[in-house]
Design brief:
It is a single chain. By secondary structure, the protein is mainly alpha-helical. Helices cover about 55% and strands about 0% of the residues. It has 6 helices and no strands. Helix 2 packs across helix 6 and helix 3 crosses helix 5.
Length: about 120
């Protein structure tokens, strides 16, 4: 039942990509601008944002840095989406563009990040 799993328990790469894309859109920056600043290709960044590529920690750090985000902010926002702290996210239609993205606060995430253990 892959469709049910996606709706109930989204993949980490999908959530992280959504956070990165939302922040890039909120800053009014292009894929090219952020990709150049992060040292990655535009197609690769696009795939990461759409949750189609599992980015390494080095790539995530580079892209977050290009967006002036600390890794803790990126992880905190992803955690908030997974935990439902910022409202309901329908990943069956994700990514539907910036209008579908929940508002993610920039650099003022105050909830604690918990490590999820299996």
């Amino acid at each position: 039942m892959p469709d049910q799993r996606t709706a109930l328990d989204p993949l980490w790469r999908t959530v992280v990509g959504a956070v990165l894309r939302d922040e890039r859109h909120r800053q009014g920056r292009t894929l090219r601008h952020v990709a150049d600043a992060a040292g990655v290709s535009v197609p690769y960044l696009s795939e990461v944002e759409r949750g189609r590529k599992e980015a390494s920690s080095e790539i995530l750090a580079a892209v977050a840095g290009a967006l002036e985000l600390r890794l803790v902010d990126l992880l905190g926002r992803a955690h908030a989406l997974l935990a439902g702290a910022l409202g309901t996210l329908d990943l069956t239609t994700w990514p539907a563009g910036p209008a579908a993205a929940p508002h993610l606060p920039r650099n003022d995430y105050r909830a604690s990040v918990t490590l999820l253990a299996a």
